[in-house]
């Protein structure tokens, strides 16, 4: 099996794991929050991250992956920023209507595209932009209802969008810059994210719910769903870093909106949630946008791969003609063939994203 085929299978596996785990945790958290009344989302997220870190520590002890330390300042900054973005998203939901909160999540994609264009000179073709527009339109139709604006809520939403975009771009950038896997990055950043939310979580939850997380009555049923939610979160957190590392922050956000549509459809089919023609139309439009986006990304990836191979072939032929050039470039050709050349990839969860 070629490297390209392995990469494609790995990407499909990461996307599938992200969808399944995210939809599962939504179902679990819906039962925990709506049915059992445990509304402390930020504190629950900190527990998710603590369990994730402990699970990865056991995996490291079992030598399932290799610990690869790198710039501690980058890890600390990234972890704290990720924790702050989660807290701001929860605050945005608390101080805004559900409709405006959905608009906040929709704004993450165009903001990410803008930041990557300005600071990383990344170009998005008109076809990609068109498919993203279709997707956002569909999700907007399906999820956005009332739009009640207020100054504090708008500021919190703006900060949430910016911090989330930067954190997701950093996830992709750090993995490529320091050549670390998603597991290695998650293992090192988890403690900083968990501590940030563990300290601020009870305060934020108390502010939003007027309840004390430590005074809540923890029945056996509540404890069961909390433990289940934490176990599923290991897969959710891991798949987030995996998807962003293998693809891009924009693709991760596209996947996130697809999961939103799947959750809406699941709620209607199995839980008999209220549903109307807007939800159905929006989901259909969003799925079309997702399919078109995936198709254009696949086409562009194949084009880039063919361009890369066509530029490398003349260089190899020239090196074969001149023995001196072959000697000087031999190590470079061998290292490139062994993985030195960065493969062109087709265009991360924090548990709060699903609340």
UniProtKB/TrEMBL annotation:
<dbReference type="InterPro" id="IPR050186">
    <property type="entry name" value="TPT_transporter"/>
</dbReference>
<feature type="transmembrane region" description="Helical">
    <location>
        <begin position="12"/>
        <end position="33"/>
    </location>
</feature>
<feature type="transmembrane region" description="Helical">
    <location>
        <begin position="45"/>
        <end position="62"/>
    </location>
</feature>
<keyword id="KW-0472">Membrane</keyword>
<feature type="transmembrane region" description="Helical">
    <location>
        <begin position="278"/>
        <end position="296"/>
    </location>
</feature>
<feature type="transmembrane region" description="Helical">
    <location>
        <begin position="151"/>
        <end position="170"/>
    </location>
</feature>
<feature type="transmembrane region" description="Helical">
    <location>
        <begin position="127"/>
        <end position="145"/>
    </location>
</feature>
<keyword id="KW-1133">Transmembrane helix</keyword>
<feature type="domain" description="Sugar phosphate transporter">
    <location>
        <begin position="21"/>
        <end position="294"/>
    </location>
</feature>
<feature type="transmembrane region" description="Helical">
    <location>
        <begin position="222"/>
        <end position="244"/>
    </location>
</feature>
<dbReference type="InterPro" id="IPR004853">
    <property type="entry name" value="Sugar_P_trans_dom"/>
</dbReference>
<protein>
    <recommendedName>
        <fullName>Sugar phosphate transporter domain-containing protein</fullName>
    </recommendedName>
</protein>
<dbReference type="InterPro" id="IPR037185">
    <property type="entry name" value="EmrE-like"/>
</dbReference>
<dbReference type="Pfam" id="PF03151">
    <property type="entry name" value="TPT"/>
</dbReference>
<feature type="transmembrane region" description="Helical">
    <location>
        <begin position="74"/>
        <end position="93"/>
    </location>
</feature>
<keyword id="KW-0812">Transmembrane</keyword>
<keyword id="KW-0813">Transport</keyword>
